[in-house]
Design goal:
heterodimer; A: 175 residues; two-stranded antiparallel sheet; 7 strands; elongated; B: 642 residues; alpha+beta; four-stranded antiparallel sheet; 12% strand
């Protein structure tokens, strides 16, 4: 027993060494895929974030129709930049719900008045709790949710004009 | 000329390290004892040379000598002199030179001042120190030469990362490095004692001041780094569980455990193998930390040198030194006799529990930090965030603090459980009162962990003062005061952390000049935005009048733009009051005339760093107290002989 304990640290270190070495020589891969793809959305119920849109709960996102769930904030500049793309998606018939992160109702109202409002429902996530549960690390991010309320795709960062066809295809695939 | 002199000094020092290793080998293993006399002067000269090389690099930075590649890529002539100075170690090569310098100077100090060890163990220690230094000299000279020239010399440099242009950061890395590399001395002691088979109380007494000194520096370095991140990064947080923060925390955890186990070994001659193991682990953690940062294997805000070639070099050094020391441990520790036994109810037991808990936290932090690497090896990508660390390390740390308060109330070797319980009556009463009081004030409004944190902080705060209870305060030794202050510091720091996470009020607004914002009892009147120019930056600065209880102060949150390299930093405005800090960050212009502003009121947050300073101060008192006692005893013995 004692003999085993004496050599245990060295054995552990050799394990770490192998790990380091493998990590060091592996080619860098910076594409991040969420672990939550294919999983059901975490359960949440959020209060309304804007004056003229209803609140949002996870149960409402499983009504059989694929949709987008956009994570945004009124204080976020790229969110304003992606607003025209969201509008284009809305005009293409996509239903878009949203979660406003660390926001206030007045600010959200002002943001929507300025940038347009493509959203059906907007939930307020005042402490980023739902955002973290979704595996989202910043704003803006956009999730494709299939009809059963499962996450089909996660888009990190703002939606550029050339991302729109890709998102439409993802929504179609999620049928 | 200065650059060439610095490089020459470095080469010369490396040769001396080789000579030092050779002399020790010849003297101890080759049976030529007479050559050992030369080891000390060689070690001292080596220290002087590394210091000389470092001074040479500093002077190159101060003169903005752009013909040196490192200066050209990391400095700029328009920078204030303090940041030219600090720029010396704000980059990969310079910080590795700092590392080697501290190592050389520490080796010289061991050669000069170490008197308690027997000659063979002392020489073996110096041999081990030379062996470690050699690897890092090679690393510096072959893959990270700080003195390389560039031709033709550019007209001006590229500048230092503006985030690093801050007085706090000028001194954070050197302090931390003194701690990291100071632990190399403990490592060398451990290797020396294993080689000469002298693991006993005398070895522990000789090693203790070095461990203490390194630990004090680590404590200060971590405290300073945490405060810097808090006010400079503008996120309002004080610890982010960033891989590099963890890299400084892990050696600290190991050194804290070592500090306590070395005391057990020095006083009671127990925990021999464990202490040697910890000494190896502590410095190994420093090296692993450096590896994590320098290799870029874990991406982090600190990674200013993402370079697989350097990474493989450091990996080879790690394998050589850590693997070698652990193999030596396995080979030799079987021949070390078991230490003195102790009973279950004794201070030794509490210190063992403390050591185990520290080790568990260390293990969890290590696993959390390396987790992305581990899962990636199996084809997944998972990153571990602050919630993991908070949830898993937090509760264990609370138990650790309770044990910390109980330990000093227990006698060495053997104690009565009933008597120990009696001594803990008052802290336990305080704990009970705190449960009720904090519960009545804040139940339901704060999380369980902050709640427990507040209770434990109050109880441990009182409990850590208990060792002074019924004692003659003037005859209490200085190192006991040191312990009390350090333990109290832990409670104070915990209180700050718990208050911050329980009671912080955050507000995010988009305000127009002229607007008034109310939050947490403060009234903030946003007056105007003005442009401002500094030495090497321009800024937009807000004038905000902060008013509470009828007294108003003007504060100036800034958004700063640096031209070289082009970067924006936030300069938070901090207003410190006895019961907390107001923290205001100016963000970007949201739309015409409205500015984003983040406002935090953080009750008692400053206690976090006050506690850190108290912990370091306690260590300093313990160091002075122990050294003075040793010196007095020697002096008395000499007088008795005369």
């Amino acid at each position: 027993m004692r003999r085993l304990l004496i050599w245990l640290p060295l054995a552990l270190f050799l394990g770490f060494f192998a790990l380091f070495a493998s990590g060091l020589f592996k080619p860098d891969d910076r594409v991040i895929t969420s672990k939550l793809i294919g999983q059901a959305l975490p359960a949440f119920t959020l209060p309304a974030a804007a004056s003229d849109r209803p609140a949002l709960a996870s149960t409402q996102l499983a009504d059989g129709k694929p949709r987008l769930l956009n994570i945004f904030a009124s204080w976020c500049i790229p969110c304003a930049a992606e607003a025209p793309q969201l509008m284009a998606l809305k005009l293409a018939g996509v239903e878009i719900d949203a979660i406003a992160i660390r926001d206030a109702r007045l600010d959200v109202d002002a943001f929507l008045a300025r940038n347009g409002n493509p959203y059906s429902r907007i939930g307020l996530d005042a402490r980023s709790g739902v955002q973290i549960a979704l595996g989202s690390s910043g704003v803006p991010e956009t999730f494709v949710i299939d009809g059963k309320g499962r996450i089909a795709y996660q888009h990190i960062g703002d939606i550029r004009a050339d991302d729109v066809p890709m998102l439409l295809q993802r929504l179609k695939d999620a049928q | 000329m200065i650059a060439e002199a610095g490089l020459a000094a470095l080469w010369f020092a490396a040769v001396l390290a080789l000579l030092q290793l050779f002399l020790v080998g010849m003297g101890l293993a080759g049976g030529k004892g007479e050559v050992l006399g030369a080891v000390r002067p060689v070690a001292i000269l080596q220290g002087v040379l590394t210091a000389g090389a470092f001074v040479a690099l500093i002077s190159l930075f101060l003169r903005s000598d752009m013909s040196v590649l490192l200066v050209a890529t990391n400095s700029h002539s328009a920078k204030p002199w303090l940041y030219k100075f600090a720029g010396t170690w704000g980059n990969h090569e310079g910080s590795m030179l700092l590392w080697v310098t501290v190592m050389g100077v520490a080796g010289a100090a061991v050669a000069l001042f170490e008197r308690a060890l027997k000659r063979d163990a002392h020489m073996a220690t110096l041999g081990a120190q030379a062996a470690i230094s050699l690897g890092f000299y090679a690393f510096l000279l072959f893959s990270s030469n700080p003195f390389a020239r560039i031709s033709p010399a550019p007209a001006d440099g590229q500048g230092l990362n503006p985030l690093l242009q801050d007085p706090g950061l000028a001194f954070h890395p050197p302090t931390l490095y003194l701690g990291y590399v100071g632990l190399s001395v403990a490592f060398s002691f451990a290797v020396g004692s294993l080689l000469t088979r002298q693991v006993d109380a005398a070895f522990a007494r000789a090693m203790r001041p070095w461990v203490l000194a390194a630990w004090i520096m680590l404590t200060l370095g971590i405290t300073a780094g945490s405060y810097w991140a808090y006010y400079e990064l503008g996120w309002g947080g004080w610890w982010f569980w960033d891989p590099v923060e963890n890299a400084s925390l892990m050696p600290w955890l190991a050194a804290t455990a070592l500090l306590h186990s070395v005391t057990v070994l020095a006083t009671r001659d127990a925990l021999r193998a464990w202490t040697v193991m910890l000494a190896v682990v502590a410095f190994s953690m420093s090296m692993v930390g450096t590896f994590l940062v320098r290799s870029g294997i874990l991406t982090s805000v600190h990674a200013f040198a993402v370079d697989p070639e350097r990474g493989s070099f450091i990996l080879a050094l790690l394998a050589l030194y850590i693997g070698g020391a652990l193999a030596l441990f396995g080979w030799r520790i079987g021949t070390v006799r078991e230490g003195a036994p102790f009973e279950l109810v004794s201070r030794e037991t509490f210190l063992v529990v403390n050591n185990l808990l520290l080790s568990v936290i260390l293990g969890l932090v290590l696993i959390g930090t390396l987790y992305p690497l581990m899962t990636e090896a199996f084809g997944h990508k998972v990153s571990v965030g602050a919630p993991y660390f908070d949830r898993i390390a937090g509760p264990i740390a609370l138990i650790l603090l309770i044990v910390m308060a109980a330990g000093p109330l227990t006698r060495w070797r053997r104690d009565q459980a009933r008597a120990v319980a009696g001594r803990m009556l008052i802290p336990a009463g305080v704990a009970l009162a705190a449960v009720v009081l904090v519960g009545a004030l804040a139940w339901g409004r704060i999380g369980l962990l902050p709640y427990c944190g507040l209770v434990v902080a109050l109880a441990v705060g009182v409990g850590s003062l208990a060792p002074l209870w019924k004692r003659n305060l003037r005859r209490t030794p200085l190192f006991t005061y040191g312990m009390v202050i350090a333990h109290l510091g832990c409670a104070v720091s915990l209180a700050g952390m718990a208050c911050d996470s329980a009671f912080t009020i955050e507000k995010l607004v988009a305000a127009r000049p002229g607007d008034t914002i109310e939050t947490a009892g403060w009234t903030l009147r946003f007056q105007r935005i003005l442009p401002l120019a500094g030495d090497n930056w321009t800024a937009l600065q807000a004038d905000v009048i902060a008013e509470r209880n009828g007294r108003a102060v003007v504060i100036h949150p800034q958004s700063r733009f640096f031209a070289s390299p082009p970067t924006t930093t936030t300069e938070a405005a901090l207003l410190t009051r006895w019961n907390g800090q107001l923290y205001v960050v100016l963000g970007q212009e949201a739309d015409a005339g409205r500015w984003q502003m983040r406002i935090w009121w953080k009750p008692f947050v400053t206690l976090i760093w006050l506690g850190g300073i108290m912990i370091a101060l306690g260590g300093l008192l313990a160091l002075i107290g122990r050294e003075r006692r040793g010196w007095l005893m020697k002096w008395r013995a000499r007088r008795a002989m005369a």
